[in-house]
Structure prediction request, 733 residues.
Amino acid sequence: MKKKFRVEGVDCADCAAKMEEGIKKIDGVKSAKINFLTEKLTIEADDMKFDQIIKLAEAEMDKVDSGARIIR
Amino acid sequence: MAVFDKEQKKNFICILISGLIICLIILFKIYSRLNIDEQPTYLRLLIYLIPYIIVGHQVILSSISNLSKGKIFDENFLMTIASIGAFVVGEYTEAVAVMLLYQIGELFQDYAVNKSRRSIKELMEIAPASAVREGKDGKYEVIDPSDVKIDDILIIKPGEKVPVDGVIINGEGEVNTSALTGESIPKYLKEGDEILSGYVNGEKLLKIKANKLYDDSTVAIILELVEESLDKKSKSEKFITKFSRYYTPVVVISAILLFIIPSILTMNWREWLVRACTFLVISCPCALVISVPLAFFGGVGAASRAGILVKGSNYLEALSKVKTIITDKTGTLTTGEFKVSNVYLTSSYSEEYVLKIAASLESYSTHPIAKSICDAYDELYGESRNNKFNKEKKNNLLEINEVKNISGLGITGNLDGKIIAAGNYRLMNEYKVDIKADINSNEYSFEDTLVYVTKDNKLIGIISISDKEKLGAKDTLRMLKSDGIERIVMLTGDKKVVAEKIANNLGISEYYSELLPQDKVKIVEDLMEENKDDKNNLYAYIGDGINDAPVLSRVDVGIAMGGAGSDAAIEAADIVIMDDELNRIEQAIRISKRTTFISWQNIIFALSIKVIFLILGAFGIIGMWWAVFADVGVAIICILNSMRMLKNNQVIKKLDFSKNM
Prediction:
């Protein structure tokens, strides 16, 4: 499943790139892209674990930039 | 203050208070007998810590929390270390100033980023928010555009955006197409006309029938394209990403070395600590990481506002390096609006019959020439095309079997057991039809496109079709040359005489005529072979037909004329010109050059300032104040520079040729 989310609190482009790397490493994630300017996260991941993956992705984002979150 | 959001406002107040305190301290130093520097160290530290904490508490807190998450090289941490370093060596004013300047810079940077995000949202605002559906019971309901189904009847109120592509079934009036085409003059539409999502209705109420779902509608496709375009990164963006991966660690390691080695050698660890901290402050590559993609986004945005869809930053960058433009003739240099100019009879059949045979065959083709023949027949004798859209009307075209559409030649079919054909001289050669007809050759113009019509392998008539050059085509080509396009090559399937005439009129010295679609690919490949090793000498191809699709995907930058163009061409192209105006290409090239220029400006500016300041910092010539400038100041300058691309309307202003024609 491929889905697009709005994100919030991504404050620098370098951080967005780091978040992307982090999310890609989560088990079950096929691809991930954070667009710093349009504040969008596109994520492709296993259907079965999708919700859990989103949670992990958000944790990953928060690790890079405190307060960064996915709007659901 | 409306310009800041809540958090920015809080930061702004902290900066203000802390700045005021530091000013007071400095004033005290100069004018009062109570010189703070003469107080005992702990008291001094306490006094300086007040403004420091006020302005820097957030930075310190988040660096601690980041540290606990195992993240070391982040800006907050670097600033905290640098300012603590300054405290340790007793440079209290410097310590507060570093934090203060850093926060001011961050505030500006935040503001600039928010502002660009807003501009981007404005660009994206062509999407409709809702649709009004007329139910079977005649009641209206407001629904989400994505809930519209095919064949739904929708009401478009004056001033509202058209939610999905459809056909007008009731009402007529002007619509504003500028969001899609960049064209400022409204378009007049009436019942039966196609209406695209993203158009803004003028002053009349329109009723439309949806013929596409929202996701397949023009506006959704455009938005998707613009957003996706950011994912296809240009070379300069890739360079920056790669660069920043190495830059920060290298600088941090050098900072550590800069502290350890000279400290051991000179035993003056205080001095070298300051210098190392200066290094740390300069180590963030943010200026580049933000500003370069921003410039490209601005470029893609500026282009889309002008009705030029660019499918990726990489194509915008490539366009700036195009030196050779290869162009199709029909629909690109010429309007593609063919008109039957004459019908010459070569047998006893009437003009009506010749046109009827031709139209019956050509109704199977979407080629502009085919359309012109059908239109001519419509106009004079009936309604050949309408039958496709309205089954009620009687089709008075001939029933033809075994229709064959031979690309680049023409169409053949079987009418009551007799072979009929309509096509160019090559089709005639294929069928061995004698086209040296028994008519006075002076009568028809050789400069027109000729369609030969045969029945039972005998020529029964010749239809001559004329096309005209686009308004301003000549001027545009001349301007392209002054924009650095070194070579313009025209390719056409038309006869040599037709090609020659157009080429002469437009000042094109190089052209290839009488080409079949596969010949076009071959010629383009041969042309590209000449400069295949030169990465700064790229090729663009402009075309609009289905037969252009292979070439469009073959060249470095494929440009399709979107309005008149076939879906295959638009799909294969990298850049789509929505309103088919030739001068948009000139505009696109200008936008691309400006974008790449601005992004390289940023790269060179940011890198050289950082390198210079690193060197000056290492030698102790500049202090931490300047280091903060090199970090945040440069980022702000680069962002502002890139934002010119979002704002500048000069480059997208449409050129008006009608005045001097």
User: Anything to note?
Assistant: Residues 149-213 of chain B form a domain with the Calcium-transporting ATPase, cytoplasmic transduction domain A fold (CATH 2.70.150.10).
